[in-house]
Amino acid sequence: MEFLGLIWDQGIMRPMINSLALLYHYLFLNYGLSIIAFTVVVRVLMIPLTIRQTNQMKKLQALQPRMKAIQDKYRDKKDAESRRAQSSESMALYREAGVNPIGCLGPMVIQMPIWIGFYRAIIRTMPTTPEGMANLSASFYAWNPASADVPLSRLFLGIDLADTVSQVYLPLNFILPVLVGASMFITTKMTSTVAMDERQQSQQRIMQWMMPVMIGVFTYQFPAGLGIYILLSNIVGVVIQYFVGGRQPIDLFGKLYLGTAETRAQAIAAKEELEMKKLSEGETEEEESTDDDSTSVHRQERSRGNRRRARNSRRRARRRRH
Amino acid sequence: MNPARGARHLQRGTAALLLAVLSAISLTACLNDLTPQGRWSAPASDGNFIYIGNLDGVLVRLDAVSHAYDVNWLYPYELDGVRKKPNGLGAIYGAPIIQDGAVYAAGYTCTGSNCDGEVFAVSTESGGISWNSGGFRIRTKLVGQVKPTDNGLLLIGTGPVDDERDPPGYLYAFSADPNAGRRVEWRVPLDGEVWGEVAVDNTTSTAYVGTSAGTLYAINISEGDLSERVKWQYASEGAITGNIIFHDGAIYFGDLASNFYRLNPRSQSIDWQFDAEAWVWAEGIPDDQKGTIYVSTLGGHIYALNIGSGDLIWSAKIDGQIIGAPLLFDRIRNEFTQRVLAVPSGIEDVHVINVNDGQIIGTFPTDSAVKSAPVLINDFVYIHTLDGQLKWYSPSDQTLQGCVALKDGGRCE
Q1: Any A CB within 8 A of B273 CB
Q2: Nearest of A116, A211, A228 to residue A168 by alpha carbon
Q3: Domain range annotation of chain B
């Protein structure tokens, strides 16, 4: 445990504290600018990881129909032998495509210690107690010229960066958490794969909403500096993801934003294909149906609804192309 | 398990873990980093009793001879029937000051950036609060110790008051008369927080106070309603957090840019400046007998400097930060007197250093970090450890003579 503490302190906290202080020293003794620069540097350093994640996502996306086929093949087989077979077939598929099913979690896992470290670094570089100030002295590398700048100025655009967001002036104390939540929502949207079935889709929907809402709520109690870091990190992340991901349009509430003409057309086609697939699945289920009358009526209505939605979608797509 | 499903489970698990960790740190970090802990208070004595601030921010006292803990004398308290129940201020950093039958001290605590402090005077006789109506409460940080002046004032530096960011600090002057009502005589706005003790030159009615913005102020403490109390200012290279001392017509102080200065108040310029290897927090200890001043740093360095020129005579190093001021005393051992410094370590122990050559020649074993200044009272060296105990040692052979837990007066293990 002591060893882990040492690694955490020497491997994450000290470099982070010294980097922030050094940036402060060279960026006009402004901690806000230091946070902005630090965020950009961290995000740029993570670009190789983002590229890797995007590639993994694309590969996973391409594998979805084949995965679905395997799932369908074993849908009604619940015995252990079938499960093992399904698992090994899936793994073989991943191996063949060179995909690590949990590889896309990389940036998230790496971001976690950065967030926690950043949270601690903000509090430690702007101590408010004598103990905190004395401890900070032990965190500086001997060569760091910023150690003579202590105490670092905590004000940026009228915000005390060490104060919690709740203590920031109105209405920024509410705007910042909303922006953090919104930017996280867009990030999650951009990094999630297209769901192939309804269960997966509903799970994704929960994830896409739960995380941003929770982080937004937490941000209200975070130091303002950390709130600014998360917001900036998300914005820079969105920009990087947009270019690394081949300028894919961002789908927000059924509307497509950004993207090139080509990628937009591809996205529309993919959406249509998905809807058609759902529709055809609905029809198949309808034909196979042997349920009672009320269920049958209900399904027919649903099927009619699906067909109507698909027609509308095709019309919208045509209009967009024109 | 199906790998695809496994990946989804892991994704949900990671998200849950992330949220749990974030919520845990958001709740706990404030407590650890934003709340002052205190325990840097050195003891003070009037010969009969030893007074000290404990780990809850309560001023307590012990009999100087029997070391019995006086349960009826403490401040602040709340009454539980007729019994006084401690109701601490949070943290007391400075040593108490004993003057004219009263003990003066200050303490504070903070919740986030909201701080509550109190300067108070307690009668040494009755244990009752002086100033008629209780201590003087200010919504600010009170880190440094109070400083009495010859013209009946009590001075203390503060942080920002009443949640106002500007000005970031004040020098407060209270009436020191314990029988009068509590009264602020005047206050001077400063450009930074004050964490150290104020130095006073009574002959010229001047107080010297250093701020976290790195400014040393010379303040006129004469009686009367003056329109301008700031006589002059000196900008040092770094924040001034430690005590300032006025000795033999000169001002000595260190800063967080790792400098130690001797300043001439007449010319308002520095006589010399010494570049240390780390932040200077503890006050310098002048030694007139040797014509030396001992300077220590948060890096554990101790320097003996020629007090006239600032030239380095020797340097030594201990493990741990030096926050409390070292104690200079004559150690008598086998009828042989040796002048030594007792230097507290922020890791553990108080080291004994020979002032002739800087050699470490002994240790007061404390089993805990020490961030207060060791004090010599009635032939014992008293050390307040960071775990909230007061220990006393034989100055000649550094053996532990006794120990008391300052929270409740219980004997230590």
Answers
A1: no
A2: A228
A3: 42-275
Strand partners, B295: B303
pLDDT at A193 over 70: no
Compare B42 and A196 and report the one with higher pLDDT. Answer: B42
Q: Give the angle A131-A136-A142 at the CA atoms, nearest 5°.
A: 140
What CATH number is given for B42-275 in this structure?
2.130.10.10
Of A128, A135, A167, which to mutate for an interface test with B (greatest number of B Cβ within 10 Å)? A128
User: Which uninterrupted H or E stretch holds A41?
Assistant: helix A31-45
Cα B216 to its chain centre, rounded Å, is 18
DSSP conformation class of A145: G
Question: Which residues of A fall within a CB distance of 8 Å from B40?
Answer: 130
**B2–A83 C-beta distance less than 8 A:** yes
Helix, strand, coil shares, percent, chain B, to 5: 10, 45, 50
Which pLDDT score is estimated for A149? 93
A108: chain B residues, CB-CB within 8 Å: 14, 18
Q: pLDDT tens digit string along A173-182?
A: 899 999 999 9
- Is pLDDT of B26 > 60? no
Distance (Å, rounded) from C-alpha B112 to C-alpha A24? 24
> Is the CB of residue B321 less than 8 Å away from at least one CB of chain A?
yes
Min Cα separation A227/chain B (Å): 12
Shortest distance, CA B147 to any CA of chain A (angstroms): 19
Residue-wise pLDDT for A16-68, tens only, equals: 999 999 999 999 999 999 999 998 998 888 888 878 877 887 787 778 778 87
Mean of all residue pLDDT scores within chain A: 80
**A249-253 contact pairs (CB < 8 A, 24+):** A250/A186, A250/A189, A250/A190, A251/A189, A252/A186, A252/A189
The two tokens of residue B185 are 């005589």
CB contact under 8 A, A134 and B143: no
Domain segments of chain A: what residues? 2-253, 270-287+294-321
Q: Cα(B52)–Cα(B118) distance, rounded to whole angstroms?
A: 16
Whether the Cβ atoms of residue B263 and residue B253 lie closer than 8 Å to each other = yes
